[in-house]
Batch of 2 targets.
Target 1
Amino acid sequence: MFEFAWLLLALPLAGAIINLLFGRQIGARNIGYLASAAVAAAFLVTCWLLFNLWQLPAEERTITVQLWQWITIGTFKVNAALLIDPLSITICMIVTGVGTLIHIYSIAYMEEDERVQRFFFYLNFFIFAMLILVLSDSFLGMFVGWEGVGLASYLLIGFWFDRRDDSYGWYADAGKKAFLVNRVGDFGMIIAMLIIWSTMGSLTFLDVFGKVHSGALTVGVANLICFMLLIAATGKSAQIPLYIWLPDAMAGPTPVSALIHAATMVTAGIYMIARTHDLWQIATSASMVAAWIGALTALFAATIALVQTDLKKILAYSTISQLGYMMLGVGVGAYSASIFHLTTHAFFKALLFLAAGSVMHATHGELDIRKMGGLRDKMPTTFLTFLIGATALAGIPPLSGFFSKDAILVGTLRVSPVLYAIGIITALLTAVYSFRAVFVPFMGQPRDKRLYNHAHESPPLMTIPLWILAFLAIVGGLLNLPFVETLSHWLETSLGPQSEVSLTLELLGITLSVVVALFGLVIAVARYLQNEAWPRRIADGFQGMMPTFEHKYYVDEFYNGLIVNPLRRMSDWFAEIFDPKIIDGAVNGVAGISAQVGEWARHLETGAIPTYALSILIGVVALVAYFVLHA
Amino acid sequence: MVPTGYYLILSGLVFTIGVIGVLTRRSALILLMCVELMLNSVNLTLVALSRQWDNLNGQIFVFIIMAVAAAEVAVGLAIVIANSRHSNTTNVDDVKLLKW
């Protein structure tokens, strides 16, 4: 029954192709329905696979479905095959499930856009590529999906390529930035694949992991591979130092931000590390670096999110921050906790983005939270669902975000108290900026009357997905309650048994998480609702840091100074000096020399017969003399 | 029997006369005649050496040269006539149509 797993890939692809070829004929609205139906069908297939996988005993839940022989060059063989196990199916559930909701939401959201056909083609293509990434049984297949989602991301960030504004510049440039920064990470992936192939002679996950367990890999090589994979993960999952593309990626339509840049694609790096955890368990140094990168990214991004005024950028930095948590989780070996957080994050962050999109829909694309205010009365559904999403993000129990974040933090506490401290500070900041994003736009008095009067609730096609996601964001924690750990046990087949945490540690972690989240809530209420003085005094303590936060730690400026501008200047030099002077000079020089020689040599052609006769004679005499004298 | 060397010396003299004629004279007709002198000096050499080595190849070769020479003269004279009709001269110094 698992041989029908290819349907999972074929359905979104078919949706994409039909929309591409016949979109004009079937009409703008049907395009959206068709695309949504394709992904919904893929979701049903995933459910069916999940059900079948559930029936099997735990140790048989790793199934490789061979499709065809893909590449055969000498001893280099790669099959096109799908790896179906609890991990890949769990991610597929998120991709197709959340994907379906976002497709449905997009029908209404993109209704008035003239390029709706292109939009749904890209969106279905993204789902297709993402499923390849998740289901492939080899590094190479995963890389194909990895590049495919990168392409879809590029196309969708620059979807409104003809627009520009002050915060993003040309939207097409935002897409370019994302693509180029991702290429840096992809380069790490390619190098990692080359090392894996040259040391182990296979790119298939199960072969490689088998060889790793039989001790074919030294710790040094494993660390090298994992460092390269880490570069790839920092690119795709927007971690330090390659996170800079994600805030700009918000130039894309909001459903894209929800689907690609919050719920699915950006978690690919986390998925990849979890998938290759057999390597990472050997590569302890690389794991430690990953944990530190994750923790620092979480903290930095959270501080930036505190001072952003653009609603989508707050969410973007919070995504980076949450991805930092996941990276921290995989770094300290809490793989299933990271996958758990990935799942709940997909729910509540997609919810937050879609709710933000609903606000944009109501306010003609306005995103500056300083201009909003009091929107609660105008859009109750959006407000309520946004509040649920923010509460889950802030980690207030019993919503889903609390359990998953706590699982990662407890896993961290087991390994390193310092990292745990960073994580818990970040949790406090998370709570503050989450509720700031709720209170400032939705509560209080309207700041911009015109905006307020225009605002209205979104149509049901948009609010129904919001409610479903809100429901999932509330109950998502049930997937993996502390001490019960349904999801962790389910994932054991793929991720191995997770280390046990002592009861005291677990309880300590939970208590601290609750206290910190609630303290964050108190700060936000005092600061943004009741406007009390004491939170301002705390903020004043960090006054010196504010410009740094507002300029996002000058990372963009740093890259501009270090890489972008020197590259531009070098390109200018090549374009204005090297190409015209040296390259053109060489070509024109050869032609010029030929012309000069010809100009001189043509005077030999006098046209006078005696001259020719004389030269023939001289030639003959010379030849005869040569043969006579040398013979 | 006359020694072969004499023939060769005579042939060399005739060839030299032909060469000097080609280089110094300006009349196209005389040029053609001088070319004939050179060709026939070669014929003389071939016949003499053919006799010397008792080998008929040289004499056969002479026939071919004669045929080619006849053809060459026919073409050459035709060019001279055509040119004299065109520019009313047979002086080769005045014919420089192929100059650069």
Target 2
Amino acid sequence: MIWLGIETSNAPLSIAVVKDGQVLIEIVQNLKLTHSVTVMPTIQELLEKVNLKPSDIDGIAVSEGPGSYTGLRIGVTVAKTIAWSLKKPVVGVSSLKVLAANAQLFNGIICSLFDARRQNVYAASYTENLSETVIEEQHISIDELLEKLKEMSKPVMFVGLDVAIFKEKIVECLGELAYFAPTSLQLPRASKLIELVQNEPLPSVEEIHSFVPKYHRIAQAEAEWIKEQKRGNQ
Amino acid sequence: MGEFTMKDTIILAIETSCDETAAAIIRNGTEIISNVVASQIESQKRFGGVVPEIASRHHVEQITIVIEEALEKANMQPSDLTAVAVTEGPGLVGALLIGINAAKAFAFVHNLPIIGVHHIAGHIYANALVQPMQFPLLALVVSGGHTELVLMKEHGSFEVIGETRDDAAGEAYDKVARVLNMPYPGGPHIDRLAHEADEAVEFPRAWLEDSYDFSFSGLKSAVINYKHNMDQRGEEINPAHVARGFQESVVEVLTTKTLRAAKEYNVKQVIAAGGVSANKGLRTSLEQVFEQEGIAFTVPPLKLCTDNAAMIGAAASYMYEAGVRGELSMNGVPGKELKSW
Ligand SMILES: [Zn+2]
């Protein structure tokens, strides 16, 4: 079984090709390039390097969110179009879970997060080996997240490039319980994405059309519209 | 050596520059095999205009569905295709990116060349689907995002001789419609009201002498001021009279300038393109003056005036013949300039 993995949920890019559980090739970069420009040439280049044709792909795994709306849409659009063109399944994976998987051997709680601006984050937390989700992925204020983690009074490993933004606050709240993943584990890896789903049952190809990113937030204009409707109904 | 055979050029075209998710299949640049458009008007109506983030989200939901439908309606397989075309710009960047990345992924899987098309070139080439284009040709492109006069000396040659300095004509229509409390999109409502009116409120015309440029923001402000003054005096405005006055101003400026340019450049054909060319008032006025002048004038049917992928496929067919090819690194260019190929 040959998998193509696509990770474009935030600024970093990762693409991987995995065959029968073996990573054949993987690229992980943090160059802040436009995904729209880099994703397709990178996929082409990696497949060429491992001597595979697009039609050799049996399944596609992609980060489905949360993250940058545009980044997610590029990854998901490329993934679903390749999948639909090949009539092969596409599987979405939480971008927070992929990131947390980098630190999955940590004996404690693993918390992955992305900055969502104005002291908010997209975050989730798992136990060792991601065997249990202790904080569901959500859009949450950093203070509230740290309070929840503090209540668990267990060591917490923080993963993600954006952790640096909140480091001071994290240490202030959790003290010696706070651990920070080394820099080599801060970038999401597309091979992890595949690792997380390769033993799961595959969705049917009929589901490709309805496959969309998990934004975790409705668009601003829609939120305002809903608010207005509620006001009108009172 | 194999025998040389003429092969049809069959293009799958994709367009997602604004709020329509569209795919079409075009044969030899002139024949529409299928033309699928998924409109977001019902969703965007709530906001009184197109919200870019909402548009992008809808495109992701629709993109593979419309491509599949275009192939199914054409009864074709990817192996029947010659190339994949997609709108590269101008447009909403987030919206453009969905079509572009889907087109690139599809082209990659099926090993097809990809062609990036300028949206305005598409609008102009919608006419090639109706009848052959005669050069030199003058195109008046009017839509929610554009008001341009484009001179074409031959296929693939574009010279923008006039453009709006502020609002696009369609944008002015939508804004005035909002002042008159009409639902989005406002253009068709104003057009209808203007035809029902027996009188017109007099509004100014922005001539910008010695130039083929346009300006509609002054006219829009004049309508707003008129309503404001009437409100202050406690008088009711007659929306039909306002609509007619506004439309007369827009139509007179567009017609006069297009005619002047057509004469100066001695063109053989004038075409109107873009969503606003569906406007009855504008169509009638242009038809009349060019009939008098003896210059051929064409407007594509309504479904080829508003955004669609058939027009992108038509332009791409000529680009393909001219040897134009894009790269897998193609990006959305929201402010893309109209250049000759
Ligand atoms: Zn348009």
